[in-house]
Structures are given as C-alpha cells and as structure tokens.
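Annotated sample (chain length 446).
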Amino acid sequence: MHLNPLVVEVPEIPEVLSLGISSYHTLSDVVGVDYDIAMQTRHRIKDAQLSGRPLYACAECCVPVTLLMHPESRRLYFKHTLKDGRCSAVTRGAYDRDEINARKYNGAKESQLHLSMKQHLAKSLVADARFSNVQVEQRWKGPVTGAWRKPDVQAVYSAPNGTSVRVAFEIQLSTTYLDVIVERRRFYLEQEGLLFWVFAEFNETGRKLTQDDVFYNNNQNAFIVNEATSSESVKATSFHLECIWAEPSAQGTEPTLKRATIPFDTLVLDKIKQQAYFFDFYGQKEQLRLDELRRLEPVRNVFEAAWIAADTDNRPVNSIWQDFYRGVRAAGIRLPDYPKDPYHIIVSALYTAKHGSVIGWGFKKFIEVAHRIAGGHPSLLPLFRIALGVYKRGPQIQQEDKTGRWKRRVEEYKRAIAAGDPKYSHDGQYDEAIAILFPELFARIN
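Output written by the structure step:
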C-alpha cells in the first residue's frame, strides 16, 4: 500500500462519513494526491461547515469534521468541529482556533506592515480614474440583512466593458484562518461584490498555509502590493500590482511560478467564483488535458480494436499491452512498469461495460461479468461501478437480473462499503493507463 504524502501517517480520525451520499471514506480518499485539489477540498469543507451543511462527519461519533494541516509536517488531518467527549479520537490542541486567532490578530492587525500596505493600496487606487469611492477601513453594509464587514480598502471599479464592480481589498498577513477567508468570500458573494486578497510577499516555497488557502482557490494567482507597485501605479495613472501565477506543464511536472507587474485592467474578474486572475491556470490545464487526449486518440483506438479482436484472433493480451506502451511512449508519455495481473481483468470489464457486450471473458451475458467483478475482484469494483454509470448500463443489468441476485449483491456490497470493508478500496495501480484508455472514467475518479 502506498502512503499518501499529503496526510498524517496515523490520523486520529482515519475515516469519515460523507453526509451527502451516506458512504464512508478514508482521510486519504478525501484529500487525494494533488496538493492544489486538496487545498480546494479544504476550502469546500469549511464553506459547507459555515453554511450549516457539513460534508463529512467522524465515522465513530458522527460529529462534523473539518480538514486541518499540521504546522510542522504540513500534512492534513481531520478534526472534530465539536469537542463533547463522545469520541475516542483525540484531536485537541493547546488552544481553540478562536483563542489562537485572537492572539495573532491582536498582535498583527495594526502592525506597521499592515498600515503601510493599506496606504500603498489606497494610493494606487486613487491614482487610477477607473476606481471611485475609495475608502479605507469603512463598513460595507448588506442592504437587506444589515450584516456588515470592514474591508481594509474598498472601491468601485469601472471595467473596460462598461460594467462596474464593488471590490473589497483584504490584506493577507498570514493571520487569517480558513473559516474567516471562506466566511468573507460568502459575504461578498451575497453582496454581489468581489473579494480581492493582496499579500506583502509570496514565496515559491515555504509559504504559509493561509497563503495557499487563498492561492489555490483563486485559480493559482496571487497579488502583491508594496511601495514599488504603488509608485508604478502613480506614474502610470493606472493601478498596477505584482502578480504571481502558476502555469501547468504538459509533461505533468510541477507547475512553474511566473511573476510580472501588471495593470489591474488585464485581470479577469469573476464575481460568481469570487476569483480574480491574470492567467487561467485551470483553463490551461484542461486545454493541455484535451490536447493530450487528442494526441493519444490513435493509440487508444488501435488498442481498443486489438483488445476486442483478441477474442477471435487469439492474440495474447500481453502483446497488445506492449504495443500500447510503445505507442504511448512514442507520443511522449512514459508509463510505469507493466502492471501486474489482473490488469487484463479490469480492462476487459471496462470494455464490456462500454460496449454492453461481453469482451475478453468466457461468459455469455453482461451481468455475469458484473457478478465476477463484485464477487471475485472487489478492489476493482469502485472503478467498474463508475463505468456502469458513465455508460448507462443500469437498465441492461436490471433486465438481465431475472432472479434478483444482482440486486441482493448490490445491497450486500453497499453495506460492506459503508462499514469500511477494506477489500472494496479502489485499486489505483492501473489509474495512469486507465486515464489514457478510458479518460471519461478517470475524470470521474478525480
């Protein structure tokens, strides 16, 4: 079993209940293996908690949980949102979050750095005629609810397309907790404004978690305002700020960070997503994925035709698999070593689900393949179930389930999965190959 480097090795809460679909998941399942997605998951869990609709609860005591990061190891773990003594898991620290937040807030809120950044920001906005009603530390009141917040700086921006947006600029000095970040985002979204975070500095490595909470939920863009950007804004009579953004790599390596001083009017402002960005990281990432799928389409089609024909021409599947690896390598992608058995079982099962007819098996009916996967290869069942949904094979199975045996089996394995039976854990050793052969399924895995 491969350890997930993003989670603590021995979590106090190893498993949680998904309150939306009543299924159980391990810490590693929820976090995944991509840091950027994990940071978005952290944000999503906190947002749901603050809105009164928590996503996950402790599997033992059913108390809602939140996702935190250990400050030293930088590994994620679940923690109860309520400590009432009913659970054996111990996730308490020396201080509650509110106590820690208050201690740090009082010492840093009116620091000299914070004060100077507000001055640089306000000076930059006043220099730009497209910004009006620039205010420092003034209340932003909700017209209906009466709720209010006091952003560091606020202004109304007249965009080049003729629209205007009220912007709340907040200075992030690594003292703002995730629940504060999420709560403010929700407030300004309700007010049809835009929350815009700015930093004093943003390093490529060794960043604070609070910086990543903003960065990974803002399309991997961050912004710096300082004396240099303020001077540039006054000189150009246009609000300038330093932008740091990530660019995805087609080779799947770590994204590279770029920096440039840019005018505000080059940014995309998305009030619905509460994002402001110069470079569309996730749009580019999706474009690279689509480009790769198109580049690999000939390899995928040749493999599928050969695999289906193997039932009649008796060609060894190992030979087909070797050709597939060579084709992928020629397209510039190197997969790990050949997977161990039973890779041919999951591939045949997925093609059977895709086409609705038995491929690569000595069975006559589709439902027999389903029974074989559920009964004989439970670690392959999670992916096979995704295939049943994507390829809409539910009606076919129901039609072939004359005795109701499959229906009973489904009830049995659902109970086992809900109880945390490890034999149904997803076997991910084939994921890289499946991502190429069945991209529509791999998209559902992630």
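Annotation: The two ends are 19 Å apart (CA to CA).
Annotation: Residues 290-445 form one domain.
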